[in-house]
Amino acid sequence: MSLLPPGAPRLGLGLAALGRPGYINLGHGTDLPGKGVDDLKAQTWAVLDAAWAAGLRYFDAARSYGRAEAFLGGWLAARGHSGAVLGSKWGYTYVADWRADAETHEVKTHDLATLDRQWPETQAALSRVPDLYLIHSATLDSGVLENRAVLERLAELAAQGVRVGLSTSGPGQADTLRRALAVRVDGVCPFSAVQATWNLLEPSAGAALAEAHAAGWTVVIKEAVANGRLSARGLGGQGDVPPPLAGVARDLGVTPDAVALGAALAQPWADVVLSGASTPEQLGQNLAALQVSVTAEPLRSALVQDPAAYWGARSALPWT
C-alpha cells in the first residue's frame, strides 16, 4: 500500500530543526531569525507553505521535537489542507524548556507508560491520528523490541489501521531493523514502516532497508544531508564541501545538499526521503534533488565512513 498520494514527490519534510530553538544541524542557530515560540511557529509555517506549494505531502514530527506536532497540526487546520500524510514518533521527551543551550534536550524512555502518555498527546497536537507512528530511535540495547507490553500495545494500534514502525540510529541500525523484522505478536509482525539514517557518509543500513522494503514495509530516509555535513556548510567547516560531492553538484548545476538527497532518492527501496530544511531557501535548494539524476555508488564509495566514526562525529555536533 503506497504511503503517498498519487503524483506526490518522494521528498518529505522533517520538522526536527523547526519545532524547537536548538538542534544539531550545522549552522542551525543562524537559520532562525528569532527563537521565541511565535518566531518558530511563523518560520515553520513558512517552510510548510513552501513545501505544500512544491507538492510535498509527507510531514514528519515527533514528541521530542519541541512544538513541531502542534505547529504542524495548527498549520493544517488553518490552511484547510487535505491529503497530507503525517508521521510521528514516541519514546523521547523534550526537556530543554525552550533553551538552545540546555544541558539535556531530550530523554529517551521506551516503556509502556511513555507510549500510553505520548500517543494521546500526539493525537491532540495533530488534531488527528498520524498515518505512521514510530518508536523513536529504537536500538537493541533499549530493550523495546523485547518488551511484550509495548509490542502488544503497538499491535493494537496496527490493528486499528495505524502504520506502526520504528526509527533507527547509531552504528547498529541494520541489526536493530533485522530484529524488528523478526518480531511477532500472535504470529504477526506489528511493524510495517522504518525511518533510518542513510547517506553518502553512512550507508551501512542499506541492505537491511532493502530487506524491509521487500517485506512490504514503508522505508523513510532521514538525515540524507548528514545534519548539514553534506551541504555547502561542509564536513570540516563552513564551505568545506567534499571534492567529489562539490564536483557533481557543479556539473549538475545544483547545491551539494541536492546531490546528497538525490543519491538517497536513487535508492530503489526508499519510499520517502526527508528534507530537514530550516528555511524556505534551504527547501528550495533541496527540491532540486527531484530534478536531477544522481549515480550514487561512485559518490558513496568516495565518501563512506566507518559507521562508528560517523556516529561518533554526529554525537559531537553542538546544539545551536
TrEMBL record:
<dbReference type="Pfam" id="PF00248">
    <property type="entry name" value="Aldo_ket_red"/>
</dbReference>
<feature type="domain" description="NADP-dependent oxidoreductase">
    <location>
        <begin position="42"/>
        <end position="297"/>
    </location>
</feature>
<dbReference type="InterPro" id="IPR053135">
    <property type="entry name" value="AKR2_Oxidoreductase"/>
</dbReference>
<protein>
    <submittedName>
        <fullName>Aldo/keto reductase</fullName>
    </submittedName>
</protein>
<dbReference type="InterPro" id="IPR036812">
    <property type="entry name" value="NAD(P)_OxRdtase_dom_sf"/>
</dbReference>
<dbReference type="InterPro" id="IPR023210">
    <property type="entry name" value="NADP_OxRdtase_dom"/>
</dbReference>
